[in-house]
Here is the input.
Amino acid sequence: MFPSPCRTRPHLPKLMATGLAATLSLGMLASGSAQAQAVANCSSDGHAAPRWLAERFMSADCTTCWSETTQPRPPRGAATLDWVVPSPTGEDAPMAAVARPDALERLQALGHSADDLREWEHRSAVASRGHRPRLRVAHGLAVGDHIGASLAFHAPANSAHGRFTAWLALAEWLPAGTEGSPVARVLVRNVLTAPIDAQPASNWPQLWRPMNVPEGAQPARLGVVGWVTDARGQVIALAQARCAAKP
Here is the structure.
């Protein structure tokens, strides 16, 4: 069962099992070529954009947070993410194996401190003023311990509010019952974040690269969630892509 209540780092028979999948080159994914599309390009194309981003944070020390039987229901059609935040106890924390340093950066961006954090949820409504920006996210199949992922963003001039920041999270959709969690989760496995222009300079996405797949993540359960924030930290565009069959 994950997480374990003991203070030593637990053995994770499911989350720490290595998976291999068929291959898709990052260059093919980023270019959006017909060949890439035919192989395995999973994108947000044709899917309604979520109107809410619901983010659930829990400390790597809080095993009871992981095993809670109830949690607030997110808004209808929301994209959800579960972040495990590193603990001051480091690798001795029960859930250290799946904690992400990026969670601290995300908390800071949301204006929330990690000090004495047990669990915390934040919901961001996607701004709907004026002409809505366009956002496309995509990913390929895992190649060993990497997976190609990309984000393309285009904002009309009248929607610009200073500097934009792009976030692209590689997440694992975990069915209820996985490693002792009685509820389904979307566990953040890796994150890319970078400043981004309002319009792409070419047909290539502004944010694209191979993302490391942590040991134990099952490639068939992976997908991406991407969003863009403006200078005020408000989410102005949101998209997700996951093409594997739901567990």
